[in-house]
């Protein structure tokens, strides 16, 4: 899938989990196509490396926002939204790529602390972040529709997937709730994307015995995220779609 490098010109887009895997590739793709990307992750050295890569590509200079979503509070996200408004005056989109696997085990053996931490990163944090940024998104949506992309996983209903699977089911529900809330106004488009199995650190932790060499690299699914950031995807508003159905 090819696209004009000016496709996302003048757009400011926040990407979580940007320090590696799919988030990093989405950030590079968006920046290459003209967006100013705000890179959010807890791993500052990896963010700085990604910053250098994007600048070396002659893309718009990105912004770094180091934040550990496991411990961040509602106030942290409110402050983040205020800083984005102060620095850029706008926000056109959010892409939620941050995720943690948690513990894969029978329910009876689930560690309660890890369960809560996994739900915090995978479900509560995306809710708090999105809620804090909605006023900015709605303000920009007076010009063109804003967009929110959540990342899901088809493994959510499998046995032993614990809080990770539960959180992804919750993300899909949150996506559909938001989509219905924005249905009448049509000013913000909301999507849930399942990238499928890719060569990421999370996949390696979930399947330690599996050789990941035959899997697509994270860069292979970045075009699906790029497509959802364009007007061509508006008919998918509120839907949970797989990257394979787009690419």
Automatic annotation (TrEMBL):
The keyword Oxidoreductase applies. InterPro entries: NAD(P)-bd_dom_sf (IPR036291), SDR_fam (IPR002347). The keyword Oxidoreductase applies. Keywords: Oxidoreductase. Pfam families: adh_short. One of its GO terms (molecular function) is oxidoreductase activity, acting on NAD(P)H, oxygen as acceptor. PANTHER family: BENZIL REDUCTASE, CHAIN DEHYDROGENASE, PUTATIVE (AFU_ORTHOLOGUE AFUA_4G08710)-RELATED. Belongs to the short-chain dehydrogenases/reductases (SDR) family. This is Oxidoreductase, short-chain dehydrogenase/reductase family. It comes from Methylophaga frappieri (strain ATCC BAA-2434 / DSM 25690 / JAM7).
């Amino acid at each position: 899938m090819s696209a004009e490098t000016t496709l996302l010109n003048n757009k400011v887009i926040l990407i979580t989990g940007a320090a590696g895997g799919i988030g990093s590739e989405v950030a590079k793709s968006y920046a290459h196509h003209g967006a100013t990307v705000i890179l959010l992750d807890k791993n500052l050295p990896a963010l700085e490396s990604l910053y250098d890569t994007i600048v070396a590509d002659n893309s718009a200079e990105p912004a770094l926002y180091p934040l550990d979503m496991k411990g961040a509070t509602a106030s942290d996200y409110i402050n983040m939204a205020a800083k984005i408004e102060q620095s850029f005056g706008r926000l056109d989109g959010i892409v939620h790529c941050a995720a943690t696997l948690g513990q894969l085990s029978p329910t009876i053996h689930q560690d309660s602390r890890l369960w809560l931490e996994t739900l915090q990163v995978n479900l509560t944090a995306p809710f708090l972040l999105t809620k804090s940024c909605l006023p900015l998104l709605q303000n920009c949506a007076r010009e063109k529709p804003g967009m929110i992309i959540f990342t899901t996983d088809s493994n959510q209903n499998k046995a032993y997937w614990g809080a990770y699977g539960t959180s992804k089911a919750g993300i899909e529900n949150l996506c559909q709730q938001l989509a219905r809330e924005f249905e009448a106004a049509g000013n913000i488009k909301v999507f849930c994307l399942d990238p499928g199995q890719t060569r990421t650190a999370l996949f390696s932790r979930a399947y330690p015995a599996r050789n990941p060499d035959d899997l697509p690299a994270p860069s292979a699914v970045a075009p699906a995220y790029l497509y959802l950031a364009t007007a061509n995807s508006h008919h998918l508003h509120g839907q949970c779609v797989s990257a394979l159905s787009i690419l």
